Structures
1.
Amino acid sequence: MREYNKLKKFGSLLVASSLLAGVLAGCGAGDSNTSSGGGSSSGGGSKDGDTIKIGANLELSGNVASYGSSIGLGAELAVKEINDAGGIDGKKIELIKVDNKSENSEATAAAIKLATQDKVVAMLAPATSGNTVATVQIANDNKIPIVTGSGTAPNITVNDDGSINEYAFRTCFIDPFQGIVAANFASGELGAKNVAIFGDNASDYAKGLAKSFKDTISKSGGKVVKEEAYVAKDTDFRTQLTNIKSANPDFIFIPGYYEEVGLIVKQAREMGITVPLMGADGWDSPTLIDLAGADALNNTFITNHYSAEDPDQKIQDFVKSFKAANGDKAPDAFNALGYDSIYYIADAIKRAGSTDGEAIKNALAETKDLSLVTGTFSVDENHNPIKTATVLEFKDGKQVFNSKVNP
């Protein structure tokens, strides 16, 4: 998901200034919403030791609210299940949600509030890479582990110099892996030979996907016949699509987010571009279908973390529970990742036998063969999960399970 440069430095400065000035004393990060699950709510007034507080720094409003809201719903279900089953060593989880408004500065402020005022022992980090990067320094400084469900940029957990951000983890795979999976699917399953790439030129998420896709498709004998770019908030893509159409590709890779991708798909089909289109998890929002239209999305594919149609029993049990709690709505990948992130944190706290940040951090890093909805995973030396990717196809406006791809 989205990434912005130099956010760690910005985060450090904001930590220092906020702590000195106490600007957050009035809940400057936005109203928080506390949910303990299991039908009870302590409203943040629990006595220390009665509950285990986990923060949720999410995009609950703003331009990518769909992502954060979905992760929050999945997290709430996991908390309820764990609490109903007796909690962690007899203690109930108290989930404290804060709206970061889909802005990196608000994400930083929310992380400070959760760490210094709410005294959480771990945090569910924002949905997007940029917002997550904005919280990494707060996590390291306060020794509070963060887990992002969908922050896929490599530098969330590993700095450009190769050093590890000790307290940063994720339950999603990283961008390069999605690019590789998409390229292998295009060449192997669709037989693509001459491909085009149309990505967000201002997004490290899109650029990372495009690079790994390009490298992989070239190694498999494919040829990139055209590359075009756009930037977030663009609404007219016809000039670039005309250029792409003239190059006559048999496949187009579109790494980006649903707001722009929905319009790109719609306009491409209107211009008579009928070849397969493919993206990654940034496409995964109900809004995509509203923007593109169900017919235009036929013959399009995405890499993703999970499918509600996967016959795996663990997935079907999750789908049943989520539907029961959310008016028969089928859970999307962000719901599943939010759900898995809470179980990942809870498992680490249990194995650590402690709510000490360093102990939880060490347990998160040592996770091996943990069975979750989005796959059984172990954590590698860069704090990334090693797990399976899923390819989905849109058919008549619905996501249909296509295949699984192992790392």
2.
Amino acid sequence: MKDHAELAEAFNKDEQRVEWHDETLWWVRQKRDKASHQIPDWEELREAASQIKHNVLSDLANYLEQFEKHAISNGINVHWAADAKEHNEIVLSILKKHQIHQMVKSKSMLTEECHLNHYLEEQGINVVDSDLGELIVQLAKEPPSHIVLPCIHKKKEEIGDIFHLHLGSEKGESDPQILTETARIHLRNTFLSRKAALTGVNFAVAETGEFVVCTNEGNADMGAHLADVHIASMGIEKLIPERKHLGVFLRLLTRSATGQPITTYSSHFKRPRPGHEMHIILVDNGRSIQLGREDFRNSLKCIRCGACMNTCPVYRRSGGHSYHTAVAGPIGSILAPNLDMKQYADLPFASTLCGSCTNVCPVKIDIHEQLYKWRQVIIKEGYGDKKKAAAMQAMAYTLSSPKVYRVAGKAGRWVMKHAPFAMNNPLNPWYKQRDMPDVPKESFGEWYAKNRS
């Protein structure tokens, strides 16, 4: 399997796309800055959100039991899933119970994490994503590249080609208005014909047993309100204690994500309509393990706004697919190693550690510090790059011995002068983006001994 560097190199071959991707996401980051500066108590809001989430994580078991109790009393069927496999099996069992073979789904990164679409397709269930960006990447048979802007890596001309192939729009059509109307007609039929709808959960309120789904397109509402069965998939960290806390997070979420004052639709679901069913699946899938890792516990505060991706210089220039995990970017690079440290060992190293992600995080997650800590854990556990680890050991030995350091310095200068091809060749990744400096005639120590002693 290719790692982040190899996948980023493939993305970087199209320089125009990289520039456009970089500039587009930076434009979104600037919108976030303007929106946040319009709220005088922005920093107090961030601190309040961080503390509320801290409170939840410190007593998660009790809050989950409180939520379950109230949700059941509201008439919601509550399920518990230890991992992705159990989650997918629960969804399938609900659909089988009602003999449903087609389902409409709104955007849910948890279901991406669980690979639900692929699983249901193998079981003969047709799933249609109703978020416009999710629909585009589904038709393109690609995973989302961004948690808020799933097809931000695609240009409108490419989307026109996809719609022409799958939805019958005119060949060469790239007008966003016409493409949106094409998708709307397709989805209208889907909403009217599906008997089951699945949504994600942005926030679940422990004191009332209700949950809130935020969308800009209203697609979650259309699916849930027209279907007989509503299934909601929720990571167990999405809880907040009381309804009054929603105001804190709803003010932060979309301002951080896209610079909007608030999400267009913030829909509250508390109980099923008469004659209909509502299910909620509470999914762990590694979150309890992360909760037990003190250094990484704060990552569970994430409200999935994507602000850290929009500001990250590495993400903006390497593309979301280079992270080869459902949640890309800085926050994904913290969450993924918790699921599989070996498979995602490369991701904490896909960062400059500049701290910009931490500065924009609405719930004050110390993202860049956790990335640095993951690097240390991964190296200690033996999942780091073997060649780099050996090189670092050699460097540590050299720097710890003045005699060895002097000999190595002389040898290095001789090689760079008489055999430069040993350094400036395509096998040396350091040299790919750099010019070889002039070889110094002597070391600083030799110069100092000659001129200052």
